[in-house]
Every structure is written in structure tokens, then in C-alpha cells.
Amino acid sequence: MRVSKEARKLANEALEEHFLQLVDDHIRNNKHFAYEGHFTGHGAWKTPQRFKDAGFIINLIFCGLDHVPTSVKRVDMRVKKGGFHVSPLDIENNFFGNMEIFNEYYPMFNTIEILDTTANILPVFSIYDNECYSPLSDEELPEWFMKYMPNLYNQLLSTRNIK
Fold first, then answer.
1. How confident is the model at residue 3, as a pLDDT?
2. Are residues 21 and 54 part of one domain?
3. Distance between CA 33 and CA 115 in Å, rounded?
4. Is residue 155 very low, low, confident or very high in pLDDT (cuts 50, 70, 90)?
5. Is 1 in the same domain as 77?
């Protein structure tokens, strides 16, 4: 097991170094850049902030689900097809952590699309040019959006109350 842990550590370090080199290259050469991941800690937000500070337009697409068990089922299906395993505890931390931290950092983005991907792809909330919008009525909004993204939800409510 010791070799496996050491190999994993070295692989993670090499991956992080390569990622940071890609970020540096794209910022230096003013090239588009996209990546997918979990943003459950404050450190994960340094990369989008670097692009923002360099004058890039920052866009985010957030895909949400109704509950942790739905996410666990998706990971289980992926594993059965040869994908990598994620522990239920990590899934739960990602589920809540992504929404909690995003709710704090969302103002850095120029555009935001929030989608509910529980069953089909359902547009929930958008911000374009500092204007927020939802095609859903208050009753149709997913509970996870209202409960775990209160800053965004309150911004939507204040927009609806103004009009």
C-alpha cells in the first residue's frame, strides 16, 4: 500500500503542476480556458480569480441535483462503466460545499447559468450583464437552489420585487 499512496501523491503533484502551467500559459497568451471541477474550498477559487484579474470574461455553468443520494447513484453508475470511485462522504462534501462556497464567490463571474440536472436539464437561474433571471416561478425553483444558494436566491427575489 505504501507504494500506491506514494504513487498517488506523485501523480497528484504532477497533475497540479501541469494544470498550473496550463493556466499560466493561457493567461500569458490570452487564450480561452475551460475546466470542470469541484470548488468546495476557498483555494479552488484562486484560478478563476487569476483569470478575472488578468481581464478575462469569466463564465460559469453550475449543474445541480436534488439530493445527495441522486449524486451517489450517478457516481455508482459511472463506476459500473469503468469510471473512478468517489466515497459517499466526499460526494456529500462536494454536494453541499460547492453550493455553499459558490454562493459566496458568485459575484466574480460575468455570466452564470445554473441548471438542475436531476432528471432533465432544467434552466434554473442566469446572470448576464449583471441582470439575473429565472424562467421558473418561485414555486418551481428547486429547493437546493433556494436553501443552499441564499445570496443568489435573494438577488432573484429582489429583482422580481422591483419589477
1. 59
2. no
3. 21
4. very high
5. no
Q: What is the pLDDT of residue 131?
A: 92
CA distance 149 to 98: 10
Beta strands 59-64 and 111-116 are parallel
Cα distance between residue 109 and residue 127, in whole Å: 9
Check: CB of residue 85 under 8 Å from CB of residue 78.
Answer: no
* Total count of domains within the chain: 2
3-class DSSP state of 103: helix
Cell numbers for 39, please give them: 470548488
d(CA 21, CA 29): 12
Alpha-carbon distance of 98 to 153, in angstroms, equals: 16
Closest Cα to residue 35, out of 58, 65, 66?
58
Is 89 found in the same domain as 11? no
